[in-house]
Amino acid sequence: MRNKEISFRKPLSGGRRWPVLASALLAIAASCVGDNQPPSEPLDTELAELMDDGALPAGLEGADMTTPPPRPRSCFGGTSGPLMPLPIGTSSFFGSDGGVAVGFPGVSGTMPPPANMGIASPVAAEPASPGFDAGVPMPIGDEQPGPASDGGSPINFDGDTGGSEPDFDNGGIGPFFGDGSFDAGGAGGQDPSCASQPIAFWQFDDCNTSNTELSDSAVSFAQGHPAFRSVDVTCTADQTTGQATHLAGVEDIVYAPDQPDFSLADGVTIAAWIKPDELDGVRTLFRKRDDGTSAFALVLNDDSLQFVIHLSNRRFRSVSVPGIKAGNWTHVAATYDGQVAKVYLNGQQAAQRKVIGQLSRGAGPLLMGNDINGRRFQGDIDDVWFNTLAAPPDTILQLTCLPQLPTGTVTPMVSDAVQAGTPVTYQFVITNNNSASCQPITLQASAGGQPGFTVDPHFTMIGPIASGETNTTPVVVTSGDDTDPGPYPISFDAFSLDNIGGLVQEQAQYVVAEPIGCHVSSARELTIRDVSVVDDPIRTSLDGPADDPRTGAWTFGRLMQRLAPSDDKGPDVAENMLRSFLSPQTINTFNVDPRPNMNSLVLSRWPRTADGKLDLVRAPMRLLAIVNRLDLKDLTKNKAGEGRIVFGVLHPGGSPMEFTVIFEYLLPARSEDDFNAWANKFQALQALPFPSEDYNVALQAITDSFSMRGALASGVNGSSLIDVRTNEIALSAVWQLREFHLSPATGFLAPATLFDTPDSSFNRSDTLGQFINANEADIIAERFDVPATFNDMPLEAGAVFNRLDVWSAPGTNNPLARHKFSLNTCNGCHGGETNTQFLQIFPRVPGQPSRLAAFLTGEDVRDRFDGTLRHFNELGRRRTLLQAVVCGP
């Protein structure tokens, strides 16, 4: 509907015109329905005037055809199912008086009600009336004047409770609605708990400026019964953390279209929070339309809350209570169960009146905050709760609950510095901040440490916690025995399992002290990723003074210059490597398909200098870590180990891609003394203040010694570079690893085979099983290399996809050999063998260190072939090896 099409008018001065027969029937019914008043008592004209609401605009009246989702089965009359369409065709449109007109096609025979359908009137197997032609309008309150043209019997449309014929109008209590649905909500014996379950609950927390629809939260599995606000109704803050609606303009209104399960035959409950701006005269809070009048209305009458009901005998009855105050939030509610009408203020019953009868059907929409006669409530409305049964007092009280987010604290926030492996007990305290009328809350709590830590309990239930009360849960956290010194965050979370509550998130620190005596620090000597290093303002930027040896020492651009034939060739070497992704490659006879997004995501966005070359000063790369791999010592290859510098590729705006580039350098050594010299250089870093410029100067001296041109006289371009490796999923849908070597022929980086990784076509092959069995001892000792060929077949891969792979082969003799082989391949180490999600060192944002995979810091992984549970702590393993060198046994 167009909201501005609603027009309001003054209250009617005259009564409505009712058919003679209908009036006579109502007079008879009045003798059976009342509130201890004589049957001859005249109608209360003042209440009739208050309830009068004229004719709705067609758009608003017509918005009642939405089919609702099924409610819980126990909340229908008897053992009925959900609302179902009529098994005969219907057409529906609006009569001149605003009522619904229906037409039925001519049918004959009998029309039994659906099986197990709880209904108000006993109409089983009653003859259907064959006399109505399709689409013939029948205004509400009229009946067919005489037999139809095909000889059918007349059908009563007056909405009475007598007679044996079923009512087919929107005002009766029979089993059918004029909108084409069965009324399953009749007096068929509902589950009493249904009185505490709303048919609709409009909390208005989704109120926003871009949409006029307001969702129904009574159901979470379907759309429910949406309400709508006129465009000028504004969204405002409620008493807690949500939204309410604010009505200020003369035409402001909120309404819910009529629904098939909005029948009022069994009663009604309407409840909400209100905050009036003004209190003068009659102002509509809620009214359920009923053909120009109202089935019920909850209004403000000056400072009183007044509940008026319209009985099916056309009488009006009222109950009211004073005490509403302008500018204050007040919870108001009204119920009627066919016996007693009650009103509540702030969850407490404030008044009641015995009224025996039945409400009118109420065929129109539920209006909130206004009516067609312009009796507008001015102020805020929130949390509208509606049911077609009378809710019990305890339910009304619970509706006054003001939920507040629970809060939590953890003590200690920072533990004392303890030796690795020491248990520390934390107290996780949760406070329920809800108002007193709220139910106790129960929460699912969890605590999590770093990989290699144990947390007891890891998951637990907390509660129930009454409003205003607290609960304290002890949680014992223990680091791994080989955990590095330093602070480690421990997270504490609790999530409410009730409708009231929220998420509590707290964090504490577990501090591991420096070990006593000589030791190796992973953070300072093995995988260095502290922001004082990776965000060093001089060494990670090429914008500094050209004559300062620190400028750009740890940048992608400087490393490219140093490994190139000359500094000016650095941009060409970088672009040549990256452009190889754009064309098919054949490496060791294996085809490597292009990754076209290298151009659109990287090369086309890379800033360029005036001569068109890649601008290495503004290279989209971010330093992630500097890594010591002395554990890869192999003096038979003149190798003390490797030094590695790891970068993450960036989007143009500086956000990280899932794309890493690793420079891997040889640490040359011909003897144990050479190896020890490298070990002592890294060990000496620990004696320096950290973080500090002194530390960074010493670290740069180490990285320069292996990355400078001339670091290895026998190397291509005098470089000690072993390879550049990439690991990315940014360029396509599957992770891929590639490797590049300096070509002796060109001095440029060229695609090469992947170290120790066969082509993926060999996985689960007999050939791979033969290789593992033939090299079993060396593989277990981790001193093997995958050759370029095996049995005269190309073996080593040109590139490999990473699908969380685990390498295996039929006929492998030793499960440990299979594991060690898989562990030392690129995609095995970065995949399923270590339960790693592709990256060991993750991309980062400035000011934050890179996150490490659990394989590095500590995890348990079960072998998927032989079930062996293996503990990985790669940094702990490397630390132990280096510590034996620098500290002795």
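^ that was protein a. below is b, sequence first then the tokens
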Amino acid sequence: METLWFILVALMLTAYVVLDGFDLGAGIINLLVARNHDERRLILRAIGPVWDGNEVWLIACGGALFFAFPFLYASSFSGFYLPLMIVLWLLMLRGVGVELRSHVSDPLWWSFFDFVFSMSSLLLAIFFGAAIGNVVRGVPLNSDGYFFEPLWTNFRVGTNPGILDWYTVLTGLLALVTLTVHGSHYIALKTEGSINARQVWLVGARVTYSFEPYRDSLCATADP
């Protein structure tokens, strides 16, 4: 039974990375490939119907850990308390950046929430990658099955590393690059014209599909 739950949790994490990964990537490239209000609104409309639904996989994974592996849930959520709080705030800021952008018709308001959306997406990608790096590297469990690590120490290899060190930061940067490419390809599939051309320059891959009918029927929740 534990093996079955392990497979289910792994599938949930994989689904979250694949499905919400292009949302994070779209946020990362939002300020790079979109140069004006209409182009940034188009990127938000491309992820509008799916971005909040994709995060359900992360919630389901946390619930499955609590139900099937309570000891793992307790030790990991206590040892990674500070980075988990940072991730939760970044997830909230990302949602705020998407939802509140269209509430006021003002260029300064749009620019502020575009920045919030992009920076929270970028930092989420790095922190998720750093989390994978910590899992691969391992954490120092004590005899009670718990551990504590500072957010960072001196970034050097040693017996007392922090959650962020040279290895986990590198895995975070790798995740950032991977999700940027993932999101860029998704935006290329959903847009055309200048945005499509800029993402070609960004990732060096050309996508020539035309999604004009889809773009006309996109959810309008991101419209000002």
